Amino acid sequence: AVNPDRLVAYMGKYFLKHWTQEGTQTRYISKISPHPNYKSETNANDIALLRLTNSVEFTDIIRPVCLWTEEVGTNVGSVVGWGFDEIGRIEEKLMYVQMAIQGEDTCNVSVANYSVKFNNDLTYCASFLEDTLECVGDSGGGMVFRTDDGIWQLRGIVTVSVVLQHQLKCGPQQYAVFTDVSKYHSWIKETLAIL
């Protein structure tokens, strides 16, 4: 188990190593609630909720994301993170890439041991749309989709990134595996009630 005293949440952070940035808010974590059926060996149920010690003030650069509630008419979403460059160094500036959700058959063929390691009902895989030397998709990063109304919805959380698969070039033939947040709505509601 991770000790909450070892974690800090930064909102509005753009430069990874700049500790003071205009508009950034820092919050400490008072409690971590991992999914009760989480298995580190297989990344099953790789989702947790964090309670912050203080509430977050929403601003022009710090906005909430909604949970996935409806199909948005596209399988292409954005993944944000610092990621890695072509030689495996962590990037300094926050980046985003677009990724496309792939079908289960594609995931089974393209991701090593996908059907063995991952519960296909609770995960999905996605590929990069184009070749890039920056590999965004840090473990724990979110995949978000924008609705026609301009609302951002969180669909997935990176469970296994390209870098964790020891591939430092990202492109349409590289895949990341995501925990499908849409399958955890009931657990999230129940946990928030007691968190």
From TrEMBL:
Protein's GO biological process:
proteolysis
Q: Where is the Peptidase S1 domain?
A: 1-193
Q: Which organism is it from?
A: Photinus pyralis
Matching CDD domains:
Tryp_SPc (cd00190)
Q: Name one GO molecular function term.
A: serine-type endopeptidase activity
One Pfam family, short name: Trypsin
Q: Which residues form a coiled coil?
A: none
**UniProt-listed InterPro entries:** CLIP_Serine_Protease, Peptidase_S1_PA, Peptidase_S1_PA_chymotrypsin, Trypsin_dom
Q: What is the official name of this protein in its record?
A: Peptidase S1 domain-containing protein
Residues that span the membrane, as ranges: none
